[in-house]
Amino acid sequence: xxxxxxxxHLGADAMALIAENTFQxxxxxxxxxxxxxxxxxxxxxxxxxxxxxxxxxxxxxLSKAGPSLKAVSTMSVxxxxxxxxxxxxxxxxxxxxxxxxxxxxxxxxxxxxxxAARNAAYGLSIVQSGxxxxxxxxxxxxxxxxxxxxxxxxSFTAGFLxxxxxxxxxxxxxxxxxxxxxxxTDSGRGRRTEDEDTAFVEQYAAFGQLKQLKWVSLxxxxxxxxxxxxxxxxxxxxxxxxxxxxxxxMKKTAILVNPGRGTLVDSDALxxxxxxxxxxxxxxxxxxxEPNVTTEHPLVKSPRATVLPHIGSATxxxxxxxxxxxxxxxxxxxxxxxxxxxxxxx
Amino acid sequence: xxxxxxxxHLGADAMALIAENTFQxxxxxxxxxxxxxxxxxxxxxxxxxxxxxxxxxxxxxLSKAGPSLKAVSTMSVxxxxxxxxxxxxxxxxxxxxxxxxxxxxxxxxxxxxxxAARNAAYGLSIVQSGxxxxxxxxxxxxxxxxxxxxxxxxSFTAGFLxxxxxxxxxxxxxxxxxxxxxxxTDSGRGRRTEDEDTAFVEQYAAFGQLKQLKWVSLxxxxxxxxxxxxxxxxxxxxxxxxxxxxxxxMKKTAILVNPGRGTLVDSDALxxxxxxxxxxxxxxxxxxxEPNVTTEHPLVKSPRATVLPHIGSATxxxxxxxxxxxxxxxxxxxxxxxxxxxxxxx
Lengths: 346, 346
Hints:
Domain D-isomer specific 2-hydroxyacid dehydrogenase NAD-binding (chains A, B): 110-312
Radius of gyration of chain A: 22 Å
Largest sheet of chain A: 7 strands, parallel
Protein name (chains A, B): D-isomer specific 2-hydroxyacid dehydrogenase NAD-binding domain-containing protein
CATH class of the largest domain in chain A: Alpha Beta
Number of domains of chain A: 2
Keywords (chains A, B): Oxidoreductase
Number of strands of chain A: 12
Strand content of chain A: 5-15%
Oligomer: homodimer
Number of helices of chain A: 14
Distance between the termini of chain A: 32 Å
Pfam family, one (chains A, B): 2-Hacid_dh
Family (chains A, B): Belongs to the D-isomer specific 2-hydroxyacid dehydrogenase family.
């Protein structure tokens, strides 16, 4: 009977999908991240392992599992916690859960851009601390930049580091806000063609004012954008791509939004840039080193940073769909069937 | 030389527009709401009065001003602080500032819907209190309903109490979120035709999944909507239109958003409904009795209410445009010229 190791209970529906099979199921019993030692202890002889992004899948865990291991399934779109090369060299398949979370993350991207621009956290704190009666309504109270051209300006540029599914969903949401130009830079797997960019603009021409979508350099991305969304993959090649040289080139009224990977941003450099007023504000759903982010973290202390605890995909429907897909990836991997959504290694 | 009374400094640009004229300008000198006694004292003999929504324009103030008064200009889209009938009976014109704030308020409507659904205030508080390391990432942590169909459901209905400019701008923004149906009820000045509703749907058909826009009863609005935006005028005729009978009929997963007028909602009934779970959450930019809303207010105490201090139009560009328009309305009114934007009394 194939043994599967599951690092977290993923809800009754997803667990039932796995239990339908004649597997020996070993599941971490507590409602918190599995202890590393427990995972290592229980990995031996597994044919499948299901993890969340809290769990490191590295040489040590794979060695403990041994040659029986056929598939790893992660309930996440990110795979920075998984050593891809170690899996590839052992011919272990990797299942993951992109696509189903695209809308939920794009929604949070828009929410964070608005919250950062419109000083939402400050507004909430004024109300919660009983300050509203004293602050009242003032002609320029709480004012920040508008996420769009505003009543008197003519253009608004949205910028994207990475232009995959979530970036495209985010840009579509911004069109009725009045975005006129969109720029992106992408060092990913393939370069989009200019024809694809033109087709995107033409598709939505009747709906808003988007005139242009184009690839730019990283420096141009910094200089031209009124809002920048970071939606590139993590890992060493993109680590701290957003640091002082980028931040210095931004517009003083611009908003930086990171709904992607914490490692993309040099936290100290961003806190310093916000303090110096190089950009207006930042909205962050992820921070390097999370969840070990305390009240001493410079971005938690910054009044111009809006920090959320990685809730991008956190809608009931989306997480249920992710759990479902992670369960089906695990089952298929163990049974030797094609994975519903497999990460293709190069 | 015509005398004008100004209840608040509206920024250098708007003030310069007024100062270009040979007026005697009397302006409240402090950076807070003008004292009522000061306004009454200084109103005598005015030809124009410029106010914000903090200032009551009633029989007492108009009598103090006397028969010289030609125009009142308010830097707001709302006019509940102005006794329209008193102005009408004295043939005093009213200038106001709609349109220029449509986008800024629609932006906040979307932001509040997202913040309420996605538990943003709770997320912020976890990070700010240093709780992130303990909470970590959990499969269903912070989960709320999705502002759209989600990966597995087929439909999402946006509802509107009032379907004027701001509602329409809000609905346009929701289309890329995947809204499939939109319903509204409107007891306003004129009823939209079914042809107008069909034309709206057809205009945006290529951009999203919106299939239908239609007028419904208040009960149907409550029962059918996954999110309800309150964007109707205030005043006695709509006071507490959102109370227990409406709230009881809502979906348990629905979001209520009030970016409009505080008086539309019975605060005690809403706090009770949230406590009982009749709806999922509420996002409020306005509350009856604001800004006198303290930490003892039931909606400030409710963990399911997201309360912001009336920042709907608070972008630098929008408030500057409102101040500009308010200044031009005042000047035109005093000079006997047509007001750039006049409130048409019936």
